[in-house]
């Protein structure tokens, strides 16, 4: 987690516009609070449904949405690839 935070903080200081992906929500929210005009948390919008058999279905909306997600969607991304 320290490497992700140090890397993102360095990119902010350099002034580099970048897409930085992390699975550490604490890093993302901490740096957005520390650098509100430089860092913005976004995620790919999605809708999640619970089917009658108890399985979860996720539909990606292909739209950037403010904030961080409530959990990892990697499994659903892998299913689509």
What's a quick, concise take on this entry?
The protein is an alpha+beta fold and about 80 residues long.
Task: Give structural notes.
There is one protein chain. With 81 residues, this protein is α+β, with helices and mostly antiparallel strands. Helices cover 37% and strands 25% of the residues. Strands 1-2 form a two-stranded antiparallel ribbon. The radius of gyration is 15 Å and the shape is elongated. The protein folds into 2 domains: 1-39, no CATH class; 41-81, no CATH class.
List keywords for this structure.
alpha+beta, two-stranded antiparallel ribbon, 81 residues
Total number of strands: 2
Q: Which assembly state applies to the chains in this document?
A: single chain
Radius of gyration, CA atoms, in whole angstroms: 15 Å
Principal-axis shape equals elongated
Strand content: 15-25%
Structurally, how many domains make up the residues? 2
Order of helices and strands: HHEEH
């Amino acid at each position: 987690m320290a490497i992700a935070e140090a890397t993102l903080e360095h990119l902010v200081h350099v002034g580099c516009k970048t897409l930085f992906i992390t699975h550490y929500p604490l890093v993302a929210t901490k740096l957005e609070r520390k650098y509100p005009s430089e860092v913005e948390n976004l995620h790919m919008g999605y809708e999640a449904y619970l089917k009658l058999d108890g399985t979860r279905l996720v539909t990606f909306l292909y739209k950037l949405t403010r904030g961080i997600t409530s959990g990892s969607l990697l499994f659903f991304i892998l299913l689509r690839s």
